[in-house]
Each structure stands twice: as structure tokens, then as C-alpha cells.
Amino acid sequence: MTVEKNPLPTELIDALLANYKKPEDLIGQDGILKQLTKALVERALQADLPPIPVPI
Q: What is the radius of gyration, based on Cα positions, of the chain?
């Protein structure tokens, strides 16, 4: 099974990096990467995903 990957829009990346000034802004304790990861995980957990079959 091949999953087609869609590149992130340049405008989205530009918006995320608009206030980037130093490496900590990206990967620090409250950096963009941590904020984005949290938002994506929360959104995925709220999604109406089909149940995963578990073999017995």
C-alpha cells in the first residue's frame, strides 16, 4: 500500500515561522515544534477514526 504524501503549503510554513528569531523559537520548551505537535495530536484524538481491528 502506497500512501501519497502532500507537501505542506509554503504559506503555512511561512506563517508558522513568522516570529522565528532564534533556534529556541523552533525547538525550545515552548517552541513552534512542540506547539504544532500538541495541536496535531489533539486534533487526531478528536477525529472520528474507525476502530482498529484487533486479532483475537
A: 16
Provide the whole-model pTM.
0.63
- Check if the beta carbon of residue 19 is closer than 8 Å to that of residue 31: no
Q: What is the pLDDT along the chain (56 residues), one digit of tens a residue?
A: 566 788 889 999 999 899 899 999 999 999 999 999 999 989 888 877 777 788 87
Please state the φ and ψ torsions of residue 52, each to the nearest 5 degrees: -90, 120
The CA distances from residue 4 to 1, 7, 13, 14, 52, in Å, are 10, 10, 20, 23, 21
CA distances from 26 to 15, 30, 54, 56 (A): 13, 8, 38, 44
